[in-house]
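re: ur question from yesterday

yeah so i grabbed the chain u mentioned. its 335 aa long if i counted rite. heres the sequnce exactly as i have it in my notes:
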Amino acid sequence: MVCLPRERDCGHFNNEELLEIGRKVIIMEAEELSRLSCSVGMEIVEAARIIQNCEGRLVVVGMGKSGIIGRKIAATLASLGTPSFFLHAAEAAHGDLGMVCREDVGLFISHSGNSEEILKVLPFFRRIGAPIIAITGNEESPLAKNCDVFLYAPIDREADPLNLAPTSSTTVQLALGDALAGVLTRMRNIEDEDFALFHPSGSLGRKLLLKVEDVMGSGSNLPVVPGGSTVGEALFEITSKGYGATTVVDDKGILMGIFTDGDLRRLIESKGYSCMAMAIEEVMTRNPSVISPSKLAAEAVRIMEEKEISVLVAVDDGKPSGMVHLHELLKAGVA
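ran it thru and got these structure tokens back, copy pasting raw so excuse formatting
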């Protein structure tokens, strides 16, 4: 590693000037993306259709900084249901091409389109009949002229002060890859639940996979009293089940209302302890907020936040089948 003298670390620039250089890099890259959004055409749809109809996998081929972008594009597409993997161009020419089948599609990424390692891999895909999609900023390059679909990724200049380091070029490549992923997502009608299947671990999977029925208290754990009960009987049910509330049902088991510990506190403040003998139907909350047990737990959190409540009744065919508390959702990592 070459170490520059300390006096060259910041040169003659002060902090404000250095900050402006950093901001200028961001602005320049944003301008390149704006131009790209205006120039991209139906070729990206054509590329997406080739990938959609692929019976194998998408093989993303790259080298150097473009290779790093290729890894990210392959990972993004895989997370959206497109079987994809990254193939390092140099390693490909030394045996890794054995991973590629004729049913696959190649996505080649090279800013210059002249990379020696990339061009060595190209004939193999041609030989086995695998379609080739190319992302390059050079429309006259061998890569651009020897692919089935060409995604043009031109830039006016790199964003670094020397106009040398891959900055604008890799940003544009990444954006094209993300755009391709977006088109494919719509083509395949990928929904939240589908996305969650590829992300079962972590908070994302919990939010998109966990349903109300997975966390609610049901059966003997469901607090429930008949409509003819007293407030005192409802209080016993509330304290014994630990949800801070109880459902109230009619003689057919249909939900009539809900009575919470908050309702009880307010009732005691206004009526005193004599309220314990009152009929629960007189003081319960009718038409409470409910949710289907098959709904996502994240939807339950949204309703609770919107209504400013801490418990929600799960209802099936008008009958309470469970109760979920905000604390349970927090513990499950959904909220």
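noticed a couple things. Residues 15-39 form the longest helix (25 residues). also The mean pLDDT is 89.
anyway ttyl
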